[in-house]
Amino acid sequence: MSSKIHKDLLHFPAASQDRQIDAMMHELMDLSPDAIFFKDGDGRWLWVNGAGVQLFGLEGISYYGLSDQELAHLLGPDSCFTRHHMQSCSGTDEKAWQAGAPWRGEECVLVNGELTRHFDVIKTPLFGPDGARRGLLGIRRDISEQMQAYSKIHYLANYDSLTGLPNRTLFQEQFAQVLATAKAQEQLLAMLFLDLDRFKDINEAHGHGFGDTLLQSVTKRIKGCIRASDMLARLGGDEFALIQVNPSHVDDAERLAQRLIQAFSRPFNIHGHEIHSTVSIGITRYPFDGQDVQQLLQNADIAMYRAKREGRNQSRIYTADMSTQTQARVALEKNLRRALAKREFLLHYQPQVDLQTGQIVGMEALLRWQRPGFGIVPPAEFIPVAEESGLIIPIGEWVLREACTQNKLWQDAGLPSLRMAVNISARQFGLNGRFMTEMVDQVLKESGLMPEYLELELTESLVMANPEQTAHILHRLKDRGISISVDDFGTGYSSLSYLKRFPIDKLKIDRSFVRDITHDDADAAIVNAVISLGHSLNLQVIAEGVETTEQLEYLRQEGCDGIQGYLFSRPMPAIALTQMLRKVRPFEINSSK
């Protein structure tokens, strides 16, 4: 094999210094980390520098004068000079000669049949004075590390590292592509927006590492329900999106949603724990529910939240009226934020009466919204939005502070010392025990109210949402001397074990059972059972929604401890209740009011 570079090929000068210059050029090119090679005008190999010899596996190989195909045959199938790669190389050689100018591009080759390597390649054609092609200078620069870094950056930018699914960015790009295809070919397209139910509770109870493992298991379960052509992505948190490409029927998306819900009915085994995690699904379809990616995504999100508001663990198909309702909800949330800032909220108070003495023994603070231009807005119209948006947390803290401050004002004015009942929302209670107890401590300190004159009302569903955390918080509050009552008793969980586990002082019978107590045997039986159960556990029992003397008499005969309702008093502002407390006489239990 000759390593001499022909001077007529490189147009070296013809002077006596030719050999010296030839040697210098040879040495310089051999020192280059890039692979440098020369071919003649017929594409036959003339010379390769040291880096090229090592790269192409040419040690001890006589390559001089061989074509690409002959060299590939000589080196064998395991070499990077495979027949396919040599054909590619010959093709780019020809492009450079035909263009009469340098050609630049990327090539990918296999070294030892395993490692894929990437090269930046420049091929410069060489021509003689007569214009005939005389040869080709080629340079290959290994850019494998740069390409690997680029691939890693591209992966991190487009894929979720936890589940390996496309992230929101890549999903929107893919969605745009399949949507364009659906438009061009007049195909159906469906998108399912999935959100795990109460995933936040799982994270808080078991830790984020546990939640991450659950998300990986969720991903596998979803994949088991879909076709290879369907596109699944994790949009963030516990939100997943699924594109059903070209479904055969308009109802296929709903059937897929039902399969997913059924799949989630089986518990997940995470680190030895059985976890029950349900899913709420919103469905939107092209061309019926939107014409672009953002509109379809937004509508699917709206449908998913409708599924959550209506009970979770179900799917909803988007309809136009959902957008109208969502816009109204967004507007209401905006007005609620303004109401909190401008102090448009106020409290009304409803007395609670002891059935044995007829005396007022407490009161419940009830939130009202004095909305400009609308008058008093009942809580049923804005509390759900406050809960969903998280505004219930600052609103609830305001309610607690206002109620405690007012109660202390009544006591300082020489009025009877009564217990003030304040409702606590699930969002307030679900933060953490330290926040809840510290917030209550701070309010009591600022208002000066003694803890024994505060009663916190919780619903059954709130109490049982996270039993361990609930027990911890309730015991801390109870240790301070605060009373605990369960509101709307009988409408939530059927399990009664929490009555002995938690430090509860009072059960409040829901008004739905009291309403028909005198002519509905089932309601009467429930009320009797609650009274008996409460007394057997040394708990007080108070009935809500008492509006008639017949209801009053029935409850008195059954031994109910107290009542609250329109029969005695409607909820009223602080000024009106102040006047009542100054002149009220014991309620006449045994006669009509």
From TrEMBL:
Pfam families xrefs: EAL (PF00563), GGDEF (PF00990), PAS_4 (PF08448)
GGDEF domain boundaries: 187-320
Source domain of life: Bacteria
Location of the EAL domain: 329-585
Ranges of residues in domain PAS: 21-79
Name this protein carries in UniProt: EAL domain-containing protein
Organism this protein belongs to: Thermithiobacillus plumbiphilus
Lineage: Bacteria, Pseudomonadati, Pseudomonadota, Acidithiobacillia, Acidithiobacillales
